[in-house]
Amino acid sequence: MSSLHRRNQQLWMEDVSLQELAVEHSTPCYVYSKRGIEANFLAYEQGLAEQKHLVCFAVKANSNIAVLQILARLGAGFDIVSIGELERVILAGGSADKIVFSGVGKTAAEMCRALEVGIRCFNVESHAELLLLNETAGAMGCVAPISLRVNPDVDPLTHPYISTGLKENKFGIDIAEAEQVYQLAATLKNLRIVGIDCHIGSQITEIDPFVEALEHLLDTVDKLGAQGIKLQHVDVGGGLGVRYQDEQPPKVAAYLSALLARFRQRSETLVLEPGRSITADAGCLITQVQYIKTNGGKHFAMVDAGMNDLLRPALYEAWMDIQPLLNDLRAPTRTYDVVGPVCETGDFLGQDRSLSIESGDFLCVYSAGAYGFTMSSNYNSRPRAAEIVISGAESYVVRARETIQDLTRGEQLLPEERSS
Ligand SMILES: *Cc1c(COP(=O)(O)O)cnc(C)c1O
Questions:
Q1: May I ask the CATH architecture of the domain 4-31+280-408?
Q2: Are 376 and 309 contacting, i.e. CB atoms less than 8 angstroms apart?
Q3: From ligand 1's centre to the CA of 146, what distance in Å?
Q4: pLDDT in tens, 295-350
Q5: pLDDT at residue 115 above 70?
Q6: pLDDT tens digits for 121-159?
Q7: Of 115, 151, 157, 208, which one has the greatest count of Cβ atoms within 10 A?
């Protein structure tokens, strides 16, 4: 649910004027709607009400602890890919027994910590990881709950950089080899097989690839059952797309009913790992126009947010809507490239946008609540943006803007050189 609306020529999130917010907190800043996040999560809960299920929010989409807290309070589980994300979930009040741990490169230290807090499941991505996890759990005198991430080899029809379920990419175990690897896992004393999982990609706007992947998973589950390996859960990953421009992603309810149609009468718990579809449209990035500039007949709006703040346009050529917070049409409407201050030609937020703006105006980049702040960096020694949560008429700074001091934290000058 997009939580933005226009009233009196102004853009509002819930009951807060973003113009007033931007003036008060300065820019760039990420703003998230508590109500929007809740509504998106509850759409999953409602769609799955008839089925034993667990919705694990993919923390890499938005890892601010206040955002995780909003979801933890609703009983969400979490899908993590690092120990840093694990500690965030714990800080936010998430339950360890609802955490699934994905990722191709888990270290022994990460495994130890996850075993210590008692996560629900390790989503194991390779044969070698299986052996290391067995050894690590053995050394701790415990048993690790595992699922194998299989690669169902379906084409999610999305951008190649965010397509993860094809045979030739680095994720998961080829589904054709899965039974063999499960058989091996069954012989390892410090592992307990609990599930199977996949994740075929991100920003997927068709239902069919999901259904196809689920069918492949269920085939494997049934074959394993016949061999005496009984699974408690089937995890179909995340990946449901959102509308940035003119995409027509299925509604959560339609997506879930397609899954449930294949899942009926099964005893396993259905696990999902949505990220983008929970937080993307519940958040936005606010930035200010610094300069208007015309070069060779082309108009540029130089803004104070760059690719270090929001990487998606530069990395994936992603299109994200950009609109002024005030639309009073003071300035002539012209076609602009909206560009950041970073020294890279790829540093743009949007190209060829028709806008009526002057320097000093604030702009909203829509649907920046997922893979926005989490992909931001300090490139060009730019402090990272503030993050703010809005709830009704209240706003809370949930991450202070970084300071110049923050930029060099942990750095050291070399000792003084002795002159000879
Ligand atoms: C990124 C990721 C997700 C979330 O994907 P979305 O497209 O944000 O829903 C879920 N599971 C795994 C394993 C991931 O890597």
A1: Beta Barrel (2.40)
A2: yes
A3: 18
A4: 988 999 999 999 999 999 999 899 999 999 998 788 899 999 999 999 888 899 99
A5: yes
A6: 999 999 999 999 999 999 999 999 999 999 998 988 766
A7: 151
Instruction: Point out which residues pair with 58 in neighbouring strands.
Output: 79
Contact between 212 and 219 under an 8 Å Cβ cutoff? The reply is no
Indicate whether residue 60 lines ligand 1 (CB < 6 A): yes
Domain positions in the chain are 4-31+280-408, 103-272
CB 135 within 8 A of CB 182: no
CA gap 275, 255 in Å, rounded = 15
Whether 274 is in the pocket of ligand 1, judged by its Cβ within 6 Å, is yes
Name the pTM for this structure: 0.96
Tell me how far apart the alpha carbons of residues 368 and 378 are, in angstroms, rounded to a whole number: 18
Name 204's bridge partners.
240
The fold for domain 103-272 equals TIM Barrel (3.20.20)
Q: Is residue 94 in contact with ligand 1, taking CB distance under 6 Å?
A: no
Question: Could you confirm whether 343 is annotated as catalytic?
Answer: yes
237 lines ligand 1 (CB under 6 A): yes
Atom of ligand 1 nearest to the CA of 370: 8
Phi first, then psi: give them for residue 65, nearest 5 degrees.
-65, -25
Looking at residue 149, its amino acid is R
User: Is the CB of 275 inside a 6 Å radius of any atom of ligand 1?
Assistant: yes
What token pair was written down for 396? 């809370």
Q: Nearest 5°: CA angle at 256, between 253 and 257? A: 85
Ligand 1 centroid–CA 200 distance in Å is 9
Cα(275) to ligand 1 centroid in Å equals 6
CA distances from 297 to 301, 302, 348, 358 (A): 13, 16, 18, 17
CA end-to-end span of the chain, whole Å? 68
The Cβ-side half-sphere exposure at 199, using a 13 Å CA radius, reads 31
Tell me the three state secondary structure of residue 245.
Answer: coil
Ligand 1 centroid distance, CA of 81 (Å): 10
pLDDT in tens, 349-378: 999 999 999 999 999 999 999 999 999 999
d(CA 216, CA 212): 6
